[in-house]
Amino acid sequence: MHKPGPYWMVLGDRAETGFADGHDSYTWDIQGWYGYDWNRLRWKTEGEGVQGESPEDAELQLLFSRMFAPYWEWQVGVRHDFEPGPTRNHFVTGIQGDAPYEFEIDAALFISEDGDASARLEAEYDLLLTQRLILQPRLEINAAFSEVPAFGIGRGINNSELGLRLRYELRREIAPYIGVSWEQQYGDTADLLKQEGEDTSETSVVVGVRFWF
User: Fold this and answer.
1) What are the domain boundaries of the chain?
2) Which of 87, 125, 141, 161 has fewest C-beta within 10 Å?
3) CATH architecture observed for domain 7-212
4) How many other CB atoms sit within 10 Å of the CB of residue 119?
């Protein structure tokens, strides 16, 4: 018998524009993989910025992924931050998969080249209203175990993003959506933003498209 694969996939989970008081923004969150059922090479990129300007945050992860249970895989690799400058590199380890009741979980631990440790948790859930209309709650939490003032990062939970997006699948591979996103900064990170005269909370209406191929 021939060995199945290799397979590949690209998923644009978020490619959106946000509209908030004072400024409009853009966000991308795209990942892909290449490999077999048990072992894969995976990449992830995400970032955001103000419309008409260069990204304020931009990163790329390159990971080796190994399935350890049905629908679950552990990941290890590197992350490179392009923005905010100066650029930084991180070691990455984490897990990704479907929790009970089909919650999609992506959790990772990052250790920078300077030894600073941080973590990120993302959770999503697809609620099918019809075969094509899908409501997706989404939660993201970022935390740091040490303070890095040069990058505006404080110790503890830094920020959270809670979103609710309603998408319509024109076909399974492409689905425009509309929604709302609420982002909140916390603790030392919020204090650093206040010192710079920045807001620590923002609510945006978002419009975008989810795609895969």
Assistant:
1) 7-212
2) 87
3) Beta Barrel (2.40)
4) 16
pTM across the whole model: 0.92
In tens, the pLDDT along 7-34 reads: 999 999 999 999 998 789 999 999 999 9
Q: Is 110 in contact with 119 (CB distance < 8 Å)?
A: yes
